[in-house]
Amino acid sequence: MTASAHSLSFELAPGGALRGELRVPGDKSISHRAVMLAALAEGETEIEGFLEGADSLATLAAFRAMGVEADGPIAGRLRVSGVGLQGLQAPQQALDLGNSGTSMRLLSGLLAGQRFASTLIGDASLSRRPMGRVIDPLTQMGARIEATPEGRSPLRLLPAEALVGIDYALPVASAQVKSSLLLAGLYAQGETCVTEPAPTRDHTERMLAAFGYPVRRQGNRVCLSGGGRLIATPIRIPADISSAAFFLVGASIAPGSDLTLTEVGMNPTRIGVVNILRQMGADIAIERPRELGGEPVADLRVRAAALHGIAIPEEQVPLAIDEFPALFIAAACADGETLLTGAAELRVKESDRIQVMAGGLSALGVEAEPRPDGILIRGIGAAGLLGGGRVAGHGDHRIAMAFAISALRAIAPIQIDDCANVETSFPGFAGLAAGVGLQITERRAEKHAEEHAKEHAEERA
Q1: Concatenated DSSP letters of 220-270
Q2: What is the pLDDT of residues 367-385, one digit of tens each?
Q3: Three-class DSSP category at 382
Q4: Is residue 375 within 8 Å of 358, Cβ to Cβ?
Q5: 22 forms bridges with which residues in the sheet?
Q6: Residues 221, 157: Cα–Cα separation, whole Å
């Protein structure tokens, strides 16, 4: 039974502790970029640690549809035969990117400079997400992109006469927009520069350099010139810090926990979750720091600690933007108030993560006040316990996993509905979590035919 034909719920018994050693799956952001650049490189690229989740597999399928040969993935190993920057072929049908906003935004830039037309589509959730933030600057470069009147997918990319490099200041910090413009810049005449208002993940710049493409970085500005070459190189992908975040929080809030997460990516543009948790009083030791395929990694040992609420520094927000659902659980279990501001971006993720998390926390007995650009959470303190009950996952993988770890501090069982999309970023989450002490059970149920038909109709609309 496929994910599209069943519903998935998590059922969690209350309490427990996280102990032992764990390597979470490979970094999703890096997996996307590894496939993209390997496909455009000259020669064969061996990739280790590739995330075999639905999102990164959607990126791989898109390049296969454009004539790129790839063997695997098998146990995270993937061999990609690159076709060079000019070697992609016109796809025979629309490229279906499922739930992956990263795939759609980055491919918009990469495909804007091709000599053929292409169409990008996604599921109902992705079709609601804004794409104007990449369409507008790409259009300034000369791209021809058709979208809905609201600036959403499906996106139709038509061959452009010529792309021209631009000097673009991002209005909002966004690694996806930055990366989209840099990928378009590979095909543009002259230099493409992007200036960001705050640091965002720099995996694209690091990986371009690893594939031998010159990138110039100075402070918050990154530039490249079109017309270069990408040369195949071996890539080993670190464990995903966004996936590790759930266990960092879980081990911090559950008394008696002592958990080591191995080979976690510690890119300085991604470690906001570690910085914020430490400010809240978390006991996180960074052990064996080293480099892996151009990316810094380390083992993280986390032990239970009494957390306290903080005002989250706004400079940390872009460094932890995907980890806030987990951090909200830490805030719920902390002593005192935690205030987040400057995070309006959370309202346009796979769900409105501010509103959805506030609703779920309230259902578990936590005071949570959503704000336009953040949230105020009044924690239950070290001696408190969360309530049990039923929480909606809203088809958002990070919401589902965040509420799963909340059961470690609950007084009664918790059921989380609509969890099938967990496979998009963290395949095997329930099994790995159970292996280190989370009392989690998966419940799958076949959907009624009319419900299944309705979902397909929504995705086509």
Answers
A1: TEEEEESS---B---EEPPBPHHHHHHHHHHHHHSTT-EEEEEEEE--TTT
A2: 999 999 999 999 999 999 9
A3: coil
A4: yes
A5: 261
A6: 27
CB of 239 within 8 A of CB of 22?
no
**3-state class of 441 per DSSP?**
strand
Instruction: Return d(Cα 410, Cα 16) in angstroms, integer.
Output: 10
Cis geometry, peptide bond prior to residue 370 (ω within 30 degrees of 0): no
pLDDT digits (tens, 9 = 90+) for 331-374: 999 999 999 999 999 998 888 999 999 999 999 999 999 999 99
- Asked if 120 and 97 count as a contact pair (C-beta separation under 8 A), the reply is yes
SS3 of 122-171: the string is: CCCCHHHCCCHHHHHHHHHCCCEEECCCCCCCCEEEECCCCCECCEEECC
Closest CA relative to residue 187, chosen from 220, 159, 210, 212? 159
Q: How many CA atoms lie within 13 A of 311 on its CB side?
A: 3
On whether the CB atoms of residues 73 and 81 are closer than 8 A, the answer is no
**Contact indicator for 325, 426 with CB cutoff of 8 Å:** no
The one-letter code for the residue type at 173 is A
Residue 458 to residue 127: CA distance in whole angstroms: 10
Residue scoring higher pLDDT (444 or 3): 444
Using a 10 angstrom Cβ sphere, with 0-12 exposed, 13-18 middle and 19 or more buried, the burial of residue 130 is middle
pLDDT at 425: 82
Quote the percentage of the chain above a pLDDT of 70. 95
Report which secondary-structure segment, H or E, holds 303.
Answer: strand 295-303
Distance separating alpha carbons of residues 30 and 76, to the nearest angstrom: 13
The tokens of 154 are what? 């499906």
Q: Which amino acid is at 291?
A: E
Asked if residues 18 and 247 have their Cβ atoms less than 8 Å apart, the reply is yes
Determine if the peptide bond prior to 25 is cis (ω within 30°): no
In angstroms, the CA 91 to CA 81 distance is 17
Reported confidence tier of residue 401, pLDDT bands at 50, 70, 90: very high
pLDDT digits (tens, 9 = 90+) for 57-75: 999 999 999 999 999 999 9
* Residues with catalytic roles: 322
In residues, how long is the chain?
461
Longest alpha-carbon distance in the chain:
65
Rg (CA), the chain: 21
Beta bridge partners of 439: none
Would you list the DSSP string of 53-64? SHHHHHHHHHHH
Nearest residue to 221 (alpha-carbon basis) of 184, 167, 183:
167
The dihedrals phi and psi of 156, each to the nearest 5 degrees, come to -110, 120
Instruction: Please tell me the distance from the alpha carbon of residue 47 to that of residue 234, in angstroms, as a whole number.
Output: 6
pTM score > 0.85 for this model? yes
Spatial separation of the C-alpha atoms in residues 173 and 150, rounded to whole Å: 21
